[in-house]
Amino acid sequence: MSKLDNKVPEGPLSEKWTKYRSEMPLVAPNNKRNIEVIVVGTGLAGASAAATLGELGYQVKAFCFHDSPRRAHSIAAQGGINAAKNYQNDGDSVYRLFYDTIKGGDYRSREGNVHRLAEVSRDIIDQCVAQGVPFAREYGGNLANRSFGGVQVSRTFYARGQTGQQLLLGAYSALSRQISLGSVKMYNRHEMLDLVKVEGKARGIIARNLISGKLERFAAHSVVLATGGYGNVYYLSTNAMGSNVTAAWTAHRRGAYFANPCYCQIHPTCIPVSGDYQSKLTLMSESLRNDGRVWVPKSHVDVEAIRAGEIKPEELPEERRDYYLERIYPAFGNLVPRDVASRAAKYVCDENRGVGSTGLAVYLDFASAIERYGHSEAVSKNEPNASIEKVKEWGTAVVSAKYGNLFEMYEKITGENPYKTPMRIFPAVHYTMGGIWVDYNLETTVPGLFALGEANFSDHGANRLGASALMQGLADGYFVIPYTIGTFLANEIRTPKISPDLPEFFEIENDVRDRIKRLLNVQGSRSVESFHRELGVKIMWEYCGMSRNGEGLKIARDKVRKLRKEFWSNVYVPHTDSDGEEYNPELEKALRVADFFELAELMIIDALDRHESCGGHFREEYATEEGEAQRNDKDYTYVAAWEFNGLEDDPILHKEELVFENVELKTRSYK
Amino acid sequence: MSSETIKLTLKVWRQTESDPGRLEDYQVEINTHMSFLEMLDVLNEQLISEKKEPVSFSHDCREGICGACSLVINGRPHGPMQGTTTCQLHMRHFEDGETIYIEPFRAKAFPVIKDLVVDRSSFDRIIQAGGYVSVNTGGTPDGNAIQIEKDTAREAFDAAACIGCGACVASCPNASAMLFTSAKVSHLALLPQGQVERRARALKMVSRMDEEGFGACSNVGACEAECPKEISIANIARMNREYISGVFGSAKKV
Fold this sequence. Notes:
By secondary structure, chain A is an alpha/beta fold. Chain A has helices spanning 16-23, 29-32, 44-56, 94-104, 111-131, 163-181, 246-253, 300-307, 324-328, 338-350, 367-380, 388-414, 469-489, 503-522, 528-544, 550-570, 585-609, 633-636, and strands at 36-40, 59-63, 81-82, 156-157, 184-187, 190-198, 201-209, 215-219, 222-225, 258-259, 264-270, 293-297, 321-322, 362-365, 423-432, 435-436, 449-451, 526-527, 571-572, 638-643, 652-657.
């Protein structure tokens, strides 16, 4: 077992980054001109990195599989972005954001990285404002903030329910500017299918041009991956249809360790699955839990009656409802963190008290809020004797002003009016905390290969707090990689331009070509989609989802292996060109699903290794008497970094011990 | 809510590089809870099981924000519902036995790649012409140093909400990209950060828009009616003002 060097600088926590940054090796402007960098992915992390590296003078080649960099799934983030600005004068500070993130992550993240994240969070807001991101404002013209789960201050900046969109368009505009200046060359509709190493260093990629279907070789001095998370391994998730692990996984196959793959975030408030045809799940923002009350019927009789349509949920009397979050967690009530709320919903559905046609849903009810707001409107209108209809009408208007767009979206999807009948919600896979292992420089175990944003594992430990994903993506891209990439490139100034015609490139290109041909030649009888659905819904969600146990995980591993074998012998990928040299979305999907199979097994292995419950990883064997997560700090305060070792043999575990010098490890309690 | 199964006839545009394209008929039986794109998923699974080539269409987030999905449904970009993208359109709005025409977004500047997939990279090039504030990363003033009136921020946001889907172009008889371009011009013209480059930006973006082969605006208003994000046509008027003041108000030749 090797010791992983995380390269966190020595010295007091609050001085590490400042001191390190001042002493870091630099690349002079005249040398930057001759150095090429490949950036894969153009979401928040990738677009901001490509733009900033371009501004610094590097020659950047940026890649995305979408038709435009603006389509990356960062665009769908709703709630907001955290920053320790303390504009509200409510006691926020860099340290407090650092502490909240460490605690929220259930003490499974690296102190040095998280503190740096909290430090640069402030610069991100300034940068985005300067780009013209239309953040919400107060009447006086200052930036507005709101609160999010797991914290006691108001530090979340937002742009209605479309914060991700506005931040991504900001980064996209900075990227577009660099494209127009010639410092970034943009390759749309190009999907990275492999990593090329020359003499052990990352020197390029093999990408498939998705229009022509031809493989292309690209070389550079260094490669940066910002390719997002792997939540789509579950088939149903809040990720976009195209979100995939392929770029990260090929890097793993070529030597980059993959860390903590079992840490997945299940978001408690999503619109439930309505049938087998379902292709994705839609999130309803966490902010709804400020006013919505979560419940299921107390008795099975009422559950059956509601399912059969004999009683409407809004008509069920109060005393026959179980507001289970308020009952179990009186201190935090409906605002417990995501992992806790999700698990509680699972428990009540396991008791067969779930609602909806599938029994896999709970209610999120706004009736109390509508009445409460209505009464307070009645007071301010000086009409204390107003009829209940009037009160409800006024209350509805208040709720609509706060959450109108979310209620509309719910109605579009379900056809039900959430002002009149409670929303049905259920947890869904949302974000993956695990990812490629990186050191303090965001460099992977392959020299010259860097990983940013959701693609790396670094900052959120075992559970991410709301509004922190946008913060991390932009921190990595705008304010970390532009500095830390110098630690590698400063030693490369004498390296001439790398040629994509080196034998190493042809070798890997041939590997990819063979893989494509193998897939096309199977000519079996099952669609890619049917394999993906079975892998995700029937295996991963069932055995490695919201809760896991040793026995189930072993069964799951066996099932994944069997299904993978079937995939490679029975998949049918429609095509007219036998080399796949054509526009072929089914082939794109097949290549991604093939990698999901391999990742799925690693997730299971990682979940089996971790004999504790923490954050998004809940092992049923390791729970308190009340069913809460039980960490094992003595044996598992480490990052599990896995080395690829072929598909037949087990991967090799490398442990990075997590050292807490500034924070005391405690049990999270929300009761 | 109860769901039901309905039967539909689809007339879908099929086109490849070698084939100039035509409508083909398909029959599907679907659940009314499905989204429009899930209905196409069902069709594709059906075609794959018959070893036929599936229909290519653009899509990604399926929650109405990425702008990837398109489709002209029964003659209307993103279908019959107001303020709704194709991915958020659900089948409960269709009747049993109905025939649905599904075509790509058509415009000279949006060449068809395959079936229902078009190339909208012309939009990227319009943004590259000037749809940004020229600031580098770092060294920017504190966020609260630039104060913006709440209503101004709201108006800028309304314009910035554009998802770049191209429905405005597809709905316009002239295939004009004025609504798209003006949304970005407005967003930045309204904010203090956008003032420095305001005139040059309008000129550069408009001229790029023309070079890409988009038509002119003749005030039909279909773009506003079909925009899934309900971007206002008032932005076009603002862009025209910006353009005129750019042409006449600048000493510099652009």
